[in-house]
Design brief:
Layout (H helix, E strand, L loop, with lengths): L13 E3 L2 E3 L6 E6 L2 E10 L3 H19 L3 H17 L1 H12 L3 H21 L15 E9 L2 E5 L7 H12 L3 E5 L5 H14 L6 E3 L4 H9 L4 E7 L2 H10 L5 E5 L4 E5 L5 H13 L9 E7 L3 H13 L19 H17 L2 E4 L3 E2 L9 E2 L2 E4 L6 H4 L6 E7 L2 H9 L3 E2 L1 E5 L3 H10 L4 E4 L15 E2 L12 H4 L2 E9 L1
Parallel strand pairs: 6-7, 6-9, 7-8, 9-10, 11-12, 11-19, 12-17, 16-17, 19-20
Antiparallel strand pairs: 1-2, 3-4, 5-22, 13-16, 14-15, 18-21
The protein binds NADP nicotinamide-adenine-dinucleotide phosphate.
NADP nicotinamide-adenine-dinucleotide phosphate binds next to helix 7 and helix 8.
């Protein structure tokens, strides 16, 4: 599974109990540039279960003292770490692009957003508090205290390899928890930079531990240790389901998983806008966003007009490395991604969908060293086809025809996911009905299915999330604290 190291890339270590150290396996793996698979961006520790156990035990030992640390001191560390990210934004953005492939402007935006997330929780986390309750006894006060849980396992994907860890680790730390963080094996370098920033911020030893390595080696050991009181995970639904089976009954879980996000185009829609939202939501980052538009459900009477506008816009998209100006179709993040996306394009053809555009593995010239797939549009897709049901996570859009609002919503809801959904309409009543009728954690009107605010709750329903706790915003703090109800008579 791990790549052979060919270039002289820098070696990075784990962080356990405040010490940067090599894995007990004495093995490493390379993080590969998806725009140039011959380039090793960095070399990382192929950790063992023993390394993970030590990381968890270190976090456990550090917990009591960190939980007792003044919130203002914890906040000051997050603030200083945020400033470190900002000061190194250009370098970290470049590394992010080399490691994941996303356009460098988007990468820079992600670095800044991560810094803002740390700053946001530095402020918001200090006023995360309990309630007081009116009751009949004049000589008694009743209130709730919010207390940290203990050791939190943080496991994250490659598509937002800095901002997703930031929105988990910041609320975990500010509320007094300690952390073991395992990033995706595709993007450990930018994850390392976040850890570096927090260490620079002044985190005491053991409060944040960092272990790299493949999930097949260390995945289970990150979640089944009795000292792990909660697992916050973002990734595929399959991995989330496995983790859920592996944790003990008293381990809290937060799973942010896959999506099959629909965009409905009504007969009264602004068609140019609908095409623009489809392209931006479906093809940005080459479709590798959990909230990416992967199904477009379009009313019969405007289908031809919409397809023409969509095709015009898709044809003008620029493909290239994330360092080229104006690129939207960047390389897919890994060979695994490439194979999976090509597999689904084949499935779509075999199922009888019409390939309107794209569907190619682009390998000529400059593209030969990277994982490029052209933006792909399937039409004549029926709701039960696999390309209309399963998450593809690439630049592939399935266009499905509907004859009424009711049918469109039935199709939109007829999948096992429920992450994000949007409708394009000029009718206020239709828009309002949609926000009620759609089964999704995020609902939008005349906006892309992608994108979420740092200060608003984010998460899905059905197989897109465990849905008990949300990420982001004030709601993002709830997962990391438990309620104690206190009755004081005097
Ligand atoms: P993935 O293969 O599930 O991996 C995600 C992370 O989990 C990686 O760090 C991976 O480590 C680790 N992992 C995998 N199996 C594990 C197990 N059994 N136990 C413990 N850890 C395990 O997902 P991905 O390919 O990185 O990311 C794409 C997926 O993430 C898509 O399905 C996308 O929809 C979803 N996503 C969801 C959201 C959201 O907020 N809902 C946001 C972004 C992405 P290795 O890399 O070492 O395998």
């Amino acid at each position: 599974m791990f790549h052979v190291i060919v270039a002289k890339a820098e070696r990075y270590k784990n962080l356990i109990n405040g010490q940067w150290e090599e894995s007990s396996s004495e093995k490493t793996f390379g993080s590969i540039n998806p725009a140039n698979k011959e380039e090793v961006v960095g070399v990382f520790q192929a950790s063992t279960k023993e390394d993970v156990k030590r990381a968890i035990e270190s976090a456990d030992r550090a917990f009591e003292s960190w939980a007792a640390t003044a919130p203002s001191k914890r906040a000051a560390i997050l603030d200083k770490a945020a400033q470190y990210l900002i000061d190194h934004a250009d370098q970290f953005a470049e590394e992010l692009t080399r490691e994941e492939g996303k356009p460098v402007n988007a990468a820079r935006g992600e670095v800044i957003r991560s810094a803002q997330t740390l700053k946001y929780y530095a402020v918001e986390g200090q006023s995360h508090s309990g309630e007081t309750f009116p009751q009949d006894d004049p000589d008694m006060d009743v209130s709730t205290r919010l207390e940290p849980l203990g050791v939190i396992s943080v496991i994250t994907p490659w598509n937002f390899p800095l901002s997703i860890p930031a929105r988990k680790i910041a609320p975990a730390l500010i509320t007094g928890n300690t952390v073991v963080f395992k990033p995706s094996s595709e993007t450990p370098l930018v994850a390392y930079r976040l850890v570096e920033a927090l260490v620079h911020g002044g985190l005491p030893q053991g409060v944040l531990n960092f272990v790299t390595g493949h999930s097949s080696d260390i995945g289970d050991s990150l979640v089944d240790h009795p000292a792990v009181k909660a697992v916050t995970f973002t990734g595929s639904t399959g991995a989330g389901e496995r983790i859920q089976r592996n944790v003990s009954f008293d381990t809290r879980t937060q799973m942010e998983l896959g999506g099959k996000n629909p965009l409905i185009v009504m007969e009264d829609a602004d068609i140019e806008l609908a095409a623009k939202l489809t392209v931006n939501g479906g093809f940005n980052l080459s479709g590798q966003a959990c909230t990416g538009t992967s199904r477009v459900i379009v009313m019969k009477e405007v289908k031809e007009k919409f397809l023409k506008a969509l095709l015009d816009k898709t044809k003008s998209l620029k493909m290239g490395s994330g360092f080229e100006e104006g690129v939207m179709i960047c390389p897919l993040a890994s060979e695994k991604q490439l194979k999976n996306v090509l597999k689904y394009i084949d499935i779509g053809k075999q199922e009888g969908a019409s390939l309107l555009y794209g569907g190619e593995h682009v390998e000529e010239g400059d593209f030969s060293k990277g994982y490029y797939v052209s933006p792909t549009i399937f039409t004549d897709v029926t709701p039960s086809m696999r390309i209309a049901q399963e998450e593809i996570f690439g630049p592939v859009i399935a266009v499905i025809e509907a004859s009424s609002y009711e049918e469109a919503v039935r199709i939109a809801n007829g999948v096992e996911y429920g992450l994000s959904a949007s409708i394009v309409t000029t009718n206020l009543k239709t828009a309002q009905r949609f926000t009620r009728d759609i089964k999704a954690g995020t609902v939008k009107v005349n906006r892309t299915t992608t994108g979420n605010l740092m200060n608003a709750p984010f998460g899905g329903i059905k197989k897109s999330s465990t849905s008990t706790f949300r990420e982001s915003g004030r709601a993002g703090l709830d997962f990391f604290t438990q309620i104690k109800t206190v009755y004081v008579g005097y």
